[in-house]
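Late entry, evening session. Most of the bench is empty. Finally got around to the prediction I had been postponing all week. Sequence below, unchanged from the version circulated by S.P.
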Amino acid sequence: MSVPLAHVVRNDFVESVHHGSAVVLDAAGNIVWSRGDVTSHIFPRSSNKLMQGLAMVQNKLPLKDRLLALACASHSGEQIHIDGVHSILNGANLDVDSLQCPADFPLDDTVRDSLLAAGIEKSPLFMNCSGKHAAMLFTCVLNGWDTANYLDPQHPLQIACKNTLEACTGEAVNHVGVDGCGAPLMSTSLVGLARSFSQFSGPAANADQHKISDAIRSHPEYLSGTRRDDCDLMRGVPGLVAKIGAEAVYGIGLGDGRSLAIKIDDGADRARVVVAAAILKDVLGVVAQVVDQQLSLPVYGGGRQVGYVRATL
């Protein structure tokens, strides 16, 4: 049911093709453009984090601004992120040992290489979801919920996340798995994912959704990292809210309530970047330098550019 969405071209020869599906909704939630299968369920991976963050805010989480963005983050493991996770844990009177996300190295290559050079080992603190896990623990403490099993799908926190996800997407969760960080992973369709981003970014956002979108817009480097494509996009397009997910999932909402969602079948981020940029420009009419910069990614041979990755909408 998926369709070709991007070509990898080397020396004027199509070397690879990325298939996937994508959908655009208007501010009222109607499908105005789509390619591939947009109604079957997928695992949105970290694109669900805005909804998880909302569930926590609705259950007493008091974080604001940078730390609220970090609670919804897939961070790069830069020092600002590590300091922020410590701050959230300190607020809950917990330490790093309370985190149940797996030990990992930072996503950011530069930071990871510096840690390796210094002989520093993997840590749950460096794992890109540690901000979310710290916020989950803080929410549990504030509500008197058990912190030892906060990742159990039947834990009150995870039930709240499921209920919030269903409310935002307008769809029942059909499948529950385990995300890379160990948290329950709940399914929705691309239409449902786009619908949820419209709610966070558009004028109809409620007070709690608005609190999250304001934090993300003001501090995209905390949601992502200072050298990441989604951070660049949020900085370059006023009112835009974006959250990537593993395996090349992307949810984006515009300030007027229009939204899009993408899933690249083979999980290639290079296709996710160019397809999103092409949809923003050609379907949604977004005019921005950063969008133009992300329409094409270079393909190298012999140390020089010999081709490109571009969308084929």
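Two things to note before I forget:
The mean pLDDT is 98.
The chain has one domain: 3-311.
Will write this up properly tomorrow.
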